[in-house]
Amino acid sequence: MKKILALACLVMVLLVSGCTTTGRKAEIVDNNGLVINDFYIDPETAEANDEVVVHMEVENKGWTTATNVDARLYGTGFATSVSPSQTQFIGTMRAPDLYTDPPIPGDLASKDWVMTVKKFPEGNRYPFPLYLRVFYDYKTSGSAVITAYNEDEFKRKAMKQDLEAPIVVSNSKGTPVKVLVTGESPVKVDLDSDSDTATYRITISNVGDGVPITNDENGLVKGRIELIGDAEFAGCMGKDVSGKIVDFDVKLGKREQARRSCTIKFSKSTWQTIPVEPIQLMFELNYKYYIEKEGTVHIIGG
């Protein structure tokens, strides 16, 4: 009997900690990393000295491991105590693995807050909003491939009516911040001048359900672009830079975009002997992000 009870307890621990895949689907959602699956307040109406429990469950449904994950509950002024604490640390949450058989879901975590209700004056029913926020560190990897031809190759392609080479942009799936690159492609590199340039629009978008808050600064996202290919920057993301790497910051509110430009310079001496080459912009965006849920507990005075 003791062995059966011990086994039952072990199974319950595994279920709560997310160590088993039973009953859970491994999936990636397009525009979020962590997702709050469940949030409730029990009971929603309480009196003095009652216990109110807030429960939440969060899962990594993005493409990237989330680090420094914690859950914070705000609006607990109606309580004499909050147990175990207003902020609960979760740690690292791994992303789903869709390439194993069977696929493995992302890490799952659940937390509870237990609060004892204060006494309030009789004759009223007092609403107290509660706000749950889950914070996590995340990153977006992206790239844009731009096809470039020297002037002679461009003419040959035009004669063959074979100039279809749009910019190919890819982003990490399951990330709340994404990149878009628009502009000229294919590029014709002019060989009659010392150098030629092409300018591109870079759009960084917050497509998730929350807001970045990197370094405790609302909206902050920190990024880097690396250029791969026989070219270099001639000003990028609002900075007077050259070379192949630029570091930058942007700020994004909920569902907001930041638009910048990057100019790429092609050297005549290099491109005289290169008919065609892909120019690749590699993006890495790093940020702390939070998502939230809210509800209300009603306290009856008396």
Strands, helices and their partners?
Elements: H1 2-17, E1 34-42, E2 45-47, E3 51-60, E4 66-74, E5 79-83, E6 87-93, E7 108-117, E8 125-150, H2 151-159, E9 168-171, E10 177-183, E11 187-189, E12 195-206, E13 211-212, E14 220-228, E15 232-236, E16 239-243, E17 245-251, E18 257-267, H3 268-271, E19 276-300
Parallel strand pairs: 2-19, 8-11
Antiparallel strand pairs: 1-3, 3-7, 4-6, 4-8, 5-7, 8-9, 8-19, 10-12, 12-18, 13-19, 14-17, 14-19, 15-16, 15-18
Helix content: under 10%
- The total count of strands amounts to 19
Shape: elongated
Number of domains: 2
CATH fold field value of the largest domain:
Immunoglobulin-like
Sheet with the most strands, sense and barrel status: 10 strands, mixed
| Alpha-carbon distance between the two ends | 47 Å
Task: Outline the low-pLDDT stretches.
Answer: 1-21
Number of helices: 3
CATH class of the largest domain: Mainly Beta
Please state the second-level CATH architecture of the largest domain.
Sandwich
Helix and strand string, N-terminal first? HEEEEEEEEHEEEEEEEEEEHE
Give the C-alpha Rg: 26 Å
User: Strand fraction band?
Assistant: over 45%
Average pLDDT: 90
Which structural class do the helices and strands define? mainly beta
Description:
Strands 2, 4, 6, 8, 9, 11, 13, 14, 17 and 19 form a 10-stranded mixed beta sheet that branches. The chain has a 5-stranded antiparallel beta sheet with strand order 10-12-18-15-16. The longest helix is centred in the N-terminal third of the chain and has 16 residues. The protein has 2 domains: 125 residues, Immunoglobulins (Immunoglobulin-like, Sandwich); 151 residues, Sandwich (Immunoglobulin-like). A hairpin with a 2-residue loop joins β15 and β16. The chain is built from 3 helices and 19 strands. With 302 residues, it is mainly β. The radius of gyration is 26 Å and the shape is elongated. Helix content is 10%, strand content 56%.
